[in-house]
Amino acid sequence: QVQLVESGGGLVQAGGSLRLSCVASGRTSRCGAMAWFRQLPGKEREFVAAITSSGGNPYYDDSVKGRFIISRDNVKNTVYLQMNSLTPEDTAVYYCAAIETGYLVGNYKSDFVWGYWGRGTQVTVSS
Known about the structure:
48% strand, seven-stranded mixed β-sheet, four-stranded antiparallel β-sheet, mainly beta
């Protein structure tokens, strides 16, 4: 098993920044590609960003491209999501996910693909 724990969420004003962290533990050798999803109030969980095991091929949803940066530190078994220029539309519970493959499968934007999940961290952006 792989356990994922997110941190770094909180309340921030519009235009501000936050950095989320997700630490993997347990059988981390089974933690390949990683991703961030978010669930907006009253909405389905949606894809935000993903990164391969090597960190060399990040993917972003169009809604966050240019504002968010996903990165990882494999020594620390941690993936990060740097969020800049936040708006109230970014208010959501942010979830970390992992899959055993090191690359991104074709349907990586579907949450059904990812085998491991954290419990989420709340991000609230005020006007």
